[in-house]
């Protein structure tokens, strides 16, 4: 099980400091949500912020594009240091083309699904992806409550992966805390995105440690 702290809930006035606090616990990724105010009802950051962080942390950038027409911006995020780019199935007119574009730039290509979107929409691209991100809240804002119906979706995706002999990772994002992380992992998640639990209260490094411990109990 790997953890990808989401900076959406970090203190942007002390962003690098917050990142350095979680870096002490060696997270596998740093989850960076990019929102455009169109695909989701919120606006966050762009490549300039990634460029400012580039070289200041060793945590790989796990970039989640919640934007329309993601193809236009992929190269900018690769140049800014992204090691994985996740695009939404719902935002891509030609999903396979977008995934291949990401791969052509030498980084991992992943795809996300909103809670109401069926796994069937990914049937023909699963062999091309490095990771599938299951949204367990409706995207746009941090601090939301995990949608319990998503356990079934995670289990179903894990079953499809096993049946087809594929090796993509299953990433889960939204409302994860010490009370439900073990159930999420048992359902089949490999990578846990957590924002509010890690950054909203207390020391981010200690919170990350507690989250990892809760998953392993």
From TrEMBL:
Among the GO biological process terms of this entry, one is: pentose catabolic process
Chain residues that bind substrate = 6, 64, 140-143, 173-175, 195-196
* This protein's GO CC annotations: cytoplasm
Q: What is its EC number?
A: 5.1.3.1
Cofactor needs: a divalent metal cation; Mn(2+); Zn(2+); Fe(2+)
Against Gene3D superfamilies, the record matches this protein to: Aldolase class I (3.20.20.70)
Listed binding positions for a divalent metal cation are 31, 33, 64, 173
- What catalytic reaction does the record list? D-ribulose 5-phosphate = D-xylulose 5-phosphate
What binding details are noted for the cofactor? Answer: Binds 1 divalent metal cation per subunit.
Which residues are the active-site ones? Answer: 33 (proton acceptor), 173 (proton donor)
Q: Which UniProt keywords apply?
A: Carbohydrate metabolism, Cobalt, Isomerase, Manganese, Metal-binding, Zinc
What PROSITE patterns does its record include?
A: RIBUL_P_3_EPIMER_1 (PS01085), RIBUL_P_3_EPIMER_2 (PS01086)
Question: InterPro entries per the record?
Answer: Aldolase_TIM, Ribul_P_3_epim, Ribul_P_3_epim-like, RibuloseP-bd_barrel
Enzyme kind, highest EC tier:
isomerase
> What GO molecular function annotations does the UniProt record carry, in alphabetical order?
D-ribulose-phosphate 3-epimerase activity; metal ion binding
Pathway given in the UniProt record: Carbohydrate degradation
Q: Which family does it belong to?
A: Belongs to the ribulose-phosphate 3-epimerase family.
Q: Which NCBIfam families match?
A: PRK05581.1-4, rpe
Q: Which PANTHER family match?
A: RIBULOSE-5-PHOSPHATE-3-EPIMERASE
Function, as annotated, reads:
Catalyzes the reversible epimerization of D-ribulose 5-phosphate to D-xylulose 5-phosphate.
Can you say what this protein is called? Ribulose-phosphate 3-epimerase
Question: Which species expresses this protein natively?
Answer: Thermoanaerobacterium xylanolyticum (strain ATCC 49914 / DSM 7097 / LX-11)
């Amino acid at each position: 099980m790997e953890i990808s702290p989401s900076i959406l809930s970090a203190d942007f006035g002390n962003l690098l400091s917050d990142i350095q606090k979680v870096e002490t616990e060696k997270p596998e990724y740093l989850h960076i949500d990019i929102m455009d105010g169109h695909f989701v009802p919120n606006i966050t950051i762009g490549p300039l912020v990634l460029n400012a962080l580039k070289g200041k942390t060793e945590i790989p950038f796990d970039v989640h594009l919640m934007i329309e027409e993601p193809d236009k911006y992929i190269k900018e995020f690769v140049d800014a240091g992204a090691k994985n780019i996740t695009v939404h199935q719902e935002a891509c007119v030609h999903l396979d083309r977008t995934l291949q574009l990401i791969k052509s730039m030498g980084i991992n290509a992943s795809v996300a699904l909103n809670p109401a979107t069926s796994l069937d929409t990914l049937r023909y691209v699963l062999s091309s992806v490095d990771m599938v991100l299951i949204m367990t809240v409706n995207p746009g804002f941090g601090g939301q409550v995990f949608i319990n119906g998503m356990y079934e979706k995670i289990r179903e995706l894990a079953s499809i992966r096993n049946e087809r002999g594929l090796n993509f990772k299953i990433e889960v994002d939204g409302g994860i805390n010490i009370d439900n992380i073990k159930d999420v992992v048992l359902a089949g998640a490999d990578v846990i995105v957590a924002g509010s639990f890690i950054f909203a209260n207390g020391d981010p490094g200690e919170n990350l440690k507690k989250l990892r411990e809760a998953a392993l109990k």
